[in-house]
Model the fold of this input.
Amino acid sequence: MPVQARSDTDAAPSPIRRRRVARVLLDSPLPQLDRLFDYEIPDELAAEALPGVRVRVPLRSAGRVIDGFLVELGEPDASDRPLSQLEAVVSPMPVLTPRLYALARRAADRAAGSAGDILRLAIPKRMVRAEKAWLAADPPSRPELTSEAQTWADAVLAEYPGLADALSHGTRLALDAPPQPATLDDGTPVGAWALLLAAAAVRTLAEGRSAIVAVPDHRDRSQLEAALRAWVPADALVRDDAKQSGPTRYTAFLRTLADAPCIVIGNRSAVYAPVADLGLIMLWDDGDPLFSEPLSPGVHARDAALLRQELDGGALVFAGHTRTSDVERLVGVGWVRDLPAARRRSPRVVLTAHREGESRAARVPSAAFAAAREALTQGPVLVQVSRPGYAPVLVCASCRHPARCAHCGGPLHAARHGAVPACTWCGRAANAWSCPECSSTMLRMASSGSERTADELGRAFPGTRVVVADGDHPVVSVDERPALVVATRGAEPLAVGGYRAVILLDGDRMLMADDLRIGESCLRWWSNAAALAAPGAPVHLVGVGGEVARALATWTQAAYARSELADRAPLRMPPTVRVAAVDGPRRSVDAALAELRRAVPELDGEAVLGPLAHGDVVRALVRFEYGLGARVTESLRASVVAQAVKGRRPAKGRPAGAANTLKVRVDVPDLDL
Done:
């Protein structure tokens, strides 16, 4: 009986389906999920699942759906390993560019953190209506600058020989900004530094490249916007500010994704703006604490800018009236170039003390008082104080013991002259206060705030307008009419034409703060205030001597930063070394430190300080050289992940994760256990 032959179709094996794979970064705070996960792309999402888009994916371990970013497309997969499928593509807009992900990954690794935490700061929340309106509109065109704008920028940059060439060649610079006020054509007062930074941004935009300018707060941003508004088209000037409304900020972020170059002005998160063809990053006053990111992993804007410049190229400028020790360290190792001004321009600083026979109780010495009286005949006078309020601190009049609330133990203060003292913590009035040390019922003021200073000066200069500027009384600018402007540090308003005199009070009290960098901070506060003085106007620093006062008087802030570095190096204090803080249960901290010593045997016996107990947790500080940074952060991050995984398995009688969290913060500014 003949055998029936099989057809070719019957003989061929079934074809192996090759799956398209998406590599997704999950939007989760869990450190063990800080990596790319593979998901299969279903056929119905193949056209939309592109790199950079927001997606929704299932998470097996949690039994739920979670958001994430599609970072890249993997190689087609023909294996039989199980892969979950993408649940949905949330938005067709590719908001995560490859360069932004690379920056987030490097910044997170340097800080022993998660890339998702960085992206949460860099990419605003999606606003559907704003996104639809953006997609329906025509894409922005390449900005065209007028010849007048380019001529103006070149004229401003000419004050710094070599600056324009350095910007074109992508140089890293430390720039001493001009310490003087300026006035725009429409009469708006700005700092001369704003004109310099605006000119650098305009020149970069004229070359067809984007510029990012990061500033500490809204006052600085307003000055830059005013300086740029006359020269840059409105659609090429992008504001990146966390205080904007959700739709406005998201629209601004979408503009930075466009191919057309632009100028971005914003706060610390602006350094992550994914602009096209980055040509320049500038940080103004990088010593301001607002540049320090409070959210995990706590990457300082200065460090993020350094990483961004290294990845994307372009120039990087650290500008300010003072020089931080962090930037000076970079200048010392040759990573940043120092570019001083062509000609010396500095305020006329006078170190003022009480004369022989004068009462030490008087806050304003006779020399500063006379200077203020003379200057008030010409225009406004600035008086800087350390604290807001009327009497921020009260003490017992007999024994000088700090006055505390009998209910909660908080410090008492006086809101105004003759007012009943109240607690700054719970708000209760202390009507029948008595000192627990000596039973006295009398109080005295240990310090004077902005309101009390304004009250005293108003009586000393009758008929003179008095303006209070602090956190509760924000004032942006004052006119050229005579006035006494009493302002707390950092809240000084601009004056048209500059202040005719500047009086810096409470300097000795500022220097008494328990802070490693208090000298740098005071020099920065005083220098920024002195830069508001009109050319030739006196700046009186009252009751302060020593190296900080000499640096202000001679306007040699960079030399002071160098001396600070020299003093800190033998003590191994930041920024001469990097410092990581490790917090958590003692067993977890001890295990992390033991693993760190095994992974980085180069750490010496004095590298670790602590651990020191703080309630239920302990803290240890790890000091390490910059060259060991990658290995130290990798080891600490591995310990955080291991502890997070272990925390999911609860101990007997303890819920999962309770008092079991290991936290690591890298590059802490102070050795505070």
Remarks:
- The first strand starts at residue 19 and ends at 26.
- The domain at 147-339 is CATH 3.40.50.300 (Rossmann fold).
